[in-house]
Prior knowledge:
Oligomer: single chain
Number of strands: 0
Amino acid sequence: MTSTGIPVLLRRGAAAVAAGRVALGLTALAWPSVPARPWVGAAADDLAARVFGRALGARDLALGLGALSALQRPAADTGSARAWVAAGALSDALDVVASLSSWPELPRVSRWLVVISAGGAALAGAAGALTLESWPASAPIAADARDGQRRGPGRTGRAAAVSPR
């Protein structure tokens, strides 16, 4: 069994956060009160909240698509991926700040869900962005079709010779 390194997990985490951001963005564009309700409660049905919900959905859709696209680029272009992932992490961190600044007025139970999920996404994105600089895009996930071993720094992808019994 091959162990997966932390940089690989962080890169995959960054891609998962970006995919979640795309899904959230599409949902907010179509039904803005759905993702807004846990954040602002019953006010999510107001016209102003729906407009802002759609705007935030567009932001998340753009950030998610940008990150996913950049994460698919060759290893030489990790700067672009790092910038997109970092931008998403910054927006999540600022969502936490916005929530904390209105903490007493937000719904008691769901405000925790919003802050924990946005805070977790911010931390995962920041860790992923920091790791992207030092880890080649193509190395961590490629698998050799002959032997199934993962390739990465220090690994050739070749299995040890095994003699038949």
